[in-house]
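Consider the record:
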Amino acid sequence: MAKFDIKKFFNENRSYCPLPFKEIYSGNDGAYKLCCEADKSNHNYTTRETTPFKFFDSPEMEAIRNKMMSGEKVKECRFCYELEDRGYPSYRTSRFANSVADFFPGDNERNVRIKLKMLGSFCNLECYMCYPNNSSGRRTQLKKMNFIGDFSFRKSTKAPTNYVSWNDILTELLANIHRIENIHMIGGEPLQLPKHWELIDKIPVEQAKHIKVSYDTNATEIRYKNHSIFDVLDKFKSTWLSVSADHYGEREAWIRYPKDIESFERNLVEMKDHVKQIHITVSLLNIYDLFEIREYYNKKFEIQCLMNNTVLDPLMLSIKNLPDKEKEKLIEKYKDADYDFTEYEGNRIVAELEKPRVEEEYQNGLKYMRELSEIRGDYTKLWPKIV
């Protein structure tokens, strides 16, 4: 019998993606999805009513997997399909095309990745483009400004878990810990969330040594009460730290207000051997400076930057709304992979810039940033081009 060629199967099957076979993901509203890029499904599975593995093993998920294996496209994956149809790499093709064998579900029982926004939404920062659902500080500030629900900001919803559902989830995760190969910690700011530390503490040491842990963290506070990130580093098989930062110096402090830049950079130095990347979200306030930002973190901290995420919501902060002449210059600047972007990073930026601009959205963004300036200082002194 001929050996099954995983790479060939992936390249020929334009529907298959490893994530529904490997990952349990829930959004900041508690709804389970196929991945962070996927549209919501018609099912009503949420972390309030359904534990993670019950969702993962559900008939609905099996039906989606069967469709993918047969090459039938699934509606939830519209975003990737549309990028591919436009000739761009997608999350599906760029992330897995060269290493699909590592993600293909095999006989190993420990092959599930957990990525659940269930630990809480407390965050000590109020990043100007962040969803209110993801940050307690953000919600408080936007309510004071009467921006909740305006200009595409998603309205804050009820918490994705309560006391009962959290205990049910925790019990099930521990009962299935032998199936888990990776846990991706998301917040809020995960290092400041009690549920995060409760989960870390309750995972048995003999299981932890087989589990990889990854974080999306702002790295402004790396200790919590009697815990620290170094406890995690010592306990688990490996730890991947992805640090969120969108600029440096005064501009970073404005975007991710009220960030203490000196404290943040001290933490980067302390954790340098464990930080895998600076994750930059591309928006109106950093699109002109991406090369400079990358050079800053590379030279000062020897940390690489990843720029494969662009602001799509709120639309008023999208780079697509810049004046057309400015977009033409930026497309020329970022279209070429010679600039050391991965193909996906550069093309994702260009793909967003090529969308038609909407003047009303752009003006809403300027209005919003002017109102934030009353609290953070005049943004036009830092970004004189964005007026």
